[in-house]
Write a structure and sequence with these properties.
The chain has three domains: about 160 residues, Sandwich (Jelly Rolls), CATH 2.60.120; about 45 residues; about 60 residues, Orthogonal Bundle (Arc Repressor Mutant, subunit A). About 40% of the residues lie in helices and about 20% in strands. The chain is built from eleven helices and twelve strands. A seven-stranded antiparallel sheet has the order 1-2-3-10-5-8-11. Strands 7-6-9-4-12 form a five-stranded mixed sheet, with no helix packed on it. The radius of gyration is 19 Å and the shape is globular. The two termini are about 25 Å apart. The N terminus is likely disordered.
Length: about 280
């Protein structure tokens, strides 16, 4: 198994932040793994941009705090499942903090835990609350006691296989159509191609993926604007051009989405983007 570790070279040396590519055989289950460690003397504050995925976070060091906008902060226990992430998450890694994050892909959360996500806007739970036992405690101890990042990820992948359920037909149907077009289709199109009712397709979205087609269409438009802003080399930002190219009615429409997802305006996002964690969906 070969994994590629990509460091974030923009971070100070006392703060380590790396992304680990998933081996091909696990490509349907995880988008990537993320590792961060604070070896400095001061807390590190970050903001995770919404990504409409469910994540599992392992706290392998000292204190880590998290908070959604307008909600009470929480301390991360040994392991925690959060998602689907439809709003920004602020978190703080205190000195000595270390975390490993698994990013579930498509219906992988459902296949591991057998839990529907359709009732949750943001779901937070310790794994033991879903499995009914302490099976994740030995994994956490092994991850914590393993120095090499590549070995940590290998332990996590090996641990996951026995719990994996086969993909259900309804899930395979909506995922197959989306993968084929490399984007999320409206429910009407999926229903027409699959022969199932629109209601059935919509329920499948929420059950297996945790969101509706309308929610993800809005999110994709927002993320296109984020990516354009982050990749732009222009000294002066052409807000009208960005709004138009992303399908917004006007600039105020785009500003509304930025405030919805980040509680920031596009201008504020540009100023603070170095403290943002953005993950391609």
């Amino acid at each position: 198994m070969t994994m590629i570790v990509e460091p974030d070279t923009n971070e100070p040396t006392e703060y380590i932040s790396v992304s680990v590519k998933v081996p091909e055989e696990f490509g349907d289950l995880f988008t990537h793994f993320y590792y961060a460690a604070n070896h400095g003397q001061e807390p590190v504050h970050k903001k995770l941009v919404p990504m409409f995925r469910t994540i599992m976070v392992f706290n392998l060091g000292s204190q880590i705090n998290g908070a959604f906008e307008d909600e009470l902060p929480f301390d991360l226990p040994d392991s925690l499942i959060i998602g689907p992430l439809k709003k920004s998450l602020q978190y703080t890694l205190h000195p000595g903090a270390e975390m490993l994050v698994a990013n579930f892909k498509w219906d992988a959360f459902y296949r591991f835990f057998g839990q529907s996500l359709q009732s949750f806007s943001t779901f937070i739970a310790e794994p033991r609350a879903l499995t009914g036992d302490e099976c994740f405690t030995p994994l956490w101890l092994k991850l914590k006691g393993t120095p090499a990042l590549e070995d940590k990820v290998k332990h996590l992948l090996d641990f996951s296989l026995p719990y994996l359920r086969a993909r259900e037909e309804a899930s395979a149907r909506i995922i197959g159509l989306n993968v084929a077009t490399d984007t999320f289709n409206p429910v009407k199109k999926i229903a027409a191609e699959s022969g199932y009712s629109e209601r059935s397709v919509q329920l499948s979205y929420k059950k297996y993926l945790g969101f509706s087609d309308k929610e993800v269409t809005r999110y994709q438009r927002f993320m296109k604007a984020v990516e354009l802003l982050m990749s732009s080399t222009e000294i002066k930002t052409d807000w009208f051009e960005i709004a138009e190219s992303c399908g917004y009615y006007d600039q105020s429409h785009m500003i509304h989405d930025f405030k919805h997802y980040l509680h920031l305006s596009p201008t504020q996002f540009l100023k603070l983007q170095e403290n943002m964690c953005v993950s391609a969906w």
